[in-house]
């Protein structure tokens, strides 16, 4: 039995879609915070169990009978360590045999502030004694393309990444790797540094948006403080804005670059190109 946390989030459904190609629906358990959102999963024959990252007891119940767990990291930055500890403690209590965890690219040496909670979680996994694999995911292309509509409207794509190279891939790309690792045997003890085959800068992203849309779009590099202020100005919560600005500065220092092509080797196919992703969003 394989359980997936965050199964109705942004990554989980892609993982399940891939997993269903090799694993019967009857062997998949979707763990969700709100079961009302999981109707489509039930219709596919997948068991749905409700548990919140903040509730260790609920997770202990949800993980009964589970052999392998894909722990998709919580989206609540600043609360992840506590929440992940709840899930790992529950996995120990439920005698889960293997955990795959979605960490951060080069977590142990990353300049991104986001790395702290991922490193803490990796240590918890090591201390748990449960065999595990680390899926150190790079940036999702969608993280940047969420800003494309505003860039097309105003003719400016703003950021604080300078000319830092970003080896991004789509959520679907990372999900294919996660499905393989959780659906097969033999991945315990592995640390996978996962990133896109192609690296690009925000200037190149702006140029691609301009090329495909026919509109004038240029990249404007800001300081970390100014970029964070701009994000807050359009309504982003302060914590999220600060995290995104910090991550951009981390990217300028090489934090989102990796040329190992581990992701495409693991999935057996090339990652989605920036041009394809821009085409899809347009």
Describe the protein's architecture and organization.
This is SDR family oxidoreductase. Keywords: Oxidoreductase. InterPro entries: NAD(P)-bd_dom_sf, NmrA-like, NmrA-type_oxidoreductase. It comes from Citrobacter enshiensis. It contains 13 helices and 9 strands. The chain has a domain at 2-137 and 169-193: NAD(P)-binding Rossmann-like Domain (Rossmann fold). Helix 4 packs parallel to helix 5. The mean pLDDT is 97. Helices cover 44% and strands 15% of the residues. It is an alpha/beta fold. The protein has helices at residues 12-19, 39-43, 56-62, 80-93, 115-128, 141-145, 148-154, 171-183, 202-213, 224-233, 238-252, 262-267, 274-281, and strands at residues 2-4, 28-32, 47-50, 68-71, 98-104, 132-137, 156-159, 191-194, 218-221.
Topology:
Layout lengths: L1 E3 L7 H8 L8 E5 L6 H5 L3 E4 L5 H7 L5 E4 L8 H14 L4 E7 L10 H14 L3 E6 L3 H5 L2 H7 L1 E4 L11 H13 L7 E4 L7 H12 L4 E4 L2 H10 L4 H15 L9 H6 L6 H8 L1
Order of helices and strands: EHEHEHEHEHEHHEHEHEHHHH
Q: Which structural class fits the helix and strand makeup?
A: alpha/beta
Whole-number average pLDDT?
Answer: 97
> Strand order of the main beta sheet, please?
3-2-1-4-5-6-8
Q: N- to C-terminal separation?
A: 39 Å
Low-confidence stretches are none
CATH class of the domain at 2-137 and 169-193: Alpha Beta
Total E-strand runs: 9
The CATH architecture of the domain at 2-137 and 169-193 is: 3-Layer(aba) Sandwich
The gyration radius over C-alpha positions equals 19 Å
> What does the overall shape look like?
globular
Helix content: 40-55%
CATH H level, superfamily name of the domain at 2-137 and 169-193: NAD(P)-binding Rossmann-like Domain
InterPro entries: NAD(P)-bd_dom_sf (IPR036291), NmrA-like (IPR008030), NmrA-type_oxidoreductase (IPR052718)
Keywords: Oxidoreductase
Domain NmrA-like: 2-245
EC number: 1.6.5.2
């Amino acid at each position: 039995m394989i359980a997936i946390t965050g199964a109705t989030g942004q990554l989980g459904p892609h993982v399940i879609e891939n997993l269903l190609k090799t694993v019967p629906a009857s062997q998949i358990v979707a763990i969700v915070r709100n079961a009302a959102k999981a109707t489509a999963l039930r219709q596919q024959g997948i068991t749905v169990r409700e548990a919140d990252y903040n509730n260790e007891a609920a997770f202990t119940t949800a993980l009964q009978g589970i052999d392998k767990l894909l722990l998709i990291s919580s989206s609540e930055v600043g609360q992840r360590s506590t929440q992940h500890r709840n899930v790992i403690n529950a996995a120990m209590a439920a005698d889960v045999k293997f955990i795959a965890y979605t960490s951060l690219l080069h977590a142990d040496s990353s300049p991104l502030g986001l790395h702290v909670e991922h490193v803490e979680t990796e240590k918890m996994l090591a201390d748990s004694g449960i065999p595990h694999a680390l899926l150190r995911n790079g940036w999702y292309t969608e993280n940047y393309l969420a800003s494309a509509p505003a860039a097309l409207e105003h003719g400016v794509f703003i950021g604080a990444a300078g000319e830092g190279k970003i080896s991004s891939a789509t959520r679907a790309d990372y999900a294919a790797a996660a499905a393989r690792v959780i659906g097969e045997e033999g991945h315990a003890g592995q640390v996978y540094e996962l990133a896109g085959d192609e690296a690009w800068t925000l200037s190149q992203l702006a140029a691609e948006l301009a090329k495909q849309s026919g509109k004038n779009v240029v990249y404007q590099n800001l300081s970390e403080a100014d970029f964070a202020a701009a994000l807050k100005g359009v309504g982003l919560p302060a914590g999220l804005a600060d995290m995104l600005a910090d991550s951009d500065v981390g990217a300028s220092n090489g934090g989102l670059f990796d040329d190992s092509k581990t992701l495409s080797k693991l999935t057996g196919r090339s990652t989605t190109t920036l041009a394809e992703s821009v085409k899809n969003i347009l």
